[in-house]
Design a protein that fits this description.
alpha+beta; 4-stranded antiparallel beta sheet; 5 helices; 40% helix; elongated
Length: 332
């Protein structure tokens, strides 16, 4: 029985020693002028959605694929929009025919007006020689005025027909745009994270189709206590060391949360009484992130260090050290 107790106490002592060693190893004091913490890598997520309802005909990318801006990601059925487009084109053709008839009517009525004006001018000359009566002159004036009115009516009909043409063209443009939007395209270069929709799915307006990760927008989110956050400012120089990678990445502080939050479970703090922490993001430059887009992945863990005293030099272990490979690989 004593042996069992001794064995139990020995195991407890070993476990306690290991816990202490791990705690010391994880929480080594930082040099003066530097602050830091551990966190996870994040890539900006882009949710690509459809503007219009429709049935998915095909999804043309797989999870992990690298895509270029304006590359077609998925295709939705365009039967309804194609029908509306054909109807709008037919409306425009009818309106254009109406314009043509109105212009022909204008030409005809202008000719009638010209003849009526000539008859009136002739009547005035005859009236000066007392060869026609005053009522005859009035009759020809009325015919001239009637011809002018018919010309104006034909011109108004043409204006109305032209407005119908413009309205039909606007409908064509809108329907064509909707028809083109049935092809879901990448808004920018990126990597496919999730295929949310599959062929045969019926989607409503605004439904997500594909989720992309932006390889140029890479940050490490760390959490720092209140007594540290006051030392930081946007643009402070930082370093990122990712677990399992022999590299030191240059970065800058590009986000400091204005509100404290409870420390996430995956974040280790040197003092467990520090329950409220501020989120800080360290961003790798877009050019560097794109250069190593095959290596930097969302969810990777690591440590971030920030220099709060510009007069301090970076320790040797934190000097910038980039990986040798820049190959882009498939995967999230």
């Amino acid at each position: 029985m004593k042996k069992k107790w001794l064995l139990f106490l020995l195991v407890v002592a070993v476990l306690a020693g290991v816990a202490v060693w791990v705690n010391i190893r994880n929480h080594v004091d930082l040099p003066d002028g530097f602050v830091g913490g551990n966190g996870r890598m994040e890539l900006k997520r882009l949710d690509v959605a459809t503007l219009y309802a429709g049935r998915v005909l095909a999804v043309k990318v797989d999870e992990g694929d690298v895509v270029k801006k304006d590359q077609v990601l998925a295709e939705l059925s365009s039967d309804q929009t194609s029908s509306r487009l054909a109807a709008a084109r037919a409306d425009k053709q009818r309106a254009e025919e109406t314009v043509a008839r109105a212009e022909a009517e204008i030409a005809a009525q202008q000719q009638v007006h010209k003849v009526a004006q000539m008859d009136l001018d002739n009547a005035h000359r005859l009236k000066s020689d007392d060869l026609v009566s005053a009522p005859e002159v009035k009759r020809r004036v009325a015919e001239r005025d009637s011809a002018i009115a018919r010309v104006k009516a034909a011109q108004a009909a043409r204006s109305e027909a032209l407005a119908a043409v413009r309205q039909a063209q606007a409908q064509i443009d809108a329907t064509s745009s909707a028809n083109n939007d049935m092809l879901i395209k990448a808004p920018k270069d990126g990597r496919v994270e999730y295929r949310i929709a599959e062929a045969g799915n019926v989607l409503g307006e605004g439904s997500k189709v594909v989720t992309l990760l932006d390889p140029s927008d890479v940050t490490l989110s760390i959490f720092l206590p209140t007594d540290t956050i006051g030392k930081l400012k946007l643009g402070d120089e930082a370093r990122i060391i990712l677990d399992g990678m022999d590299a030191v990445w240059p970065a800058q502080v590009n986000f400091i949360d204005a509100n404290a939050q409870f420390t996430p479970k995956f974040v280790e703090t040197s003092n467990q009484r520090q329950k409220l922490m501020y989120k800080v993001k360290l961003k790798i430059s877009p050019e560097l992130a794109l250069r190593y887009s095959g290596l930097l992945k969302g969810g990777m863990t690591g440590n971030g260090y920030i220099r709060v005293d510009s007069g301090k030099g970076w320790p040797t272990d934190w000097q910038v050290k980039l990986p040798q490979t820049t190959q882009v690989t498939k995967g999230r």
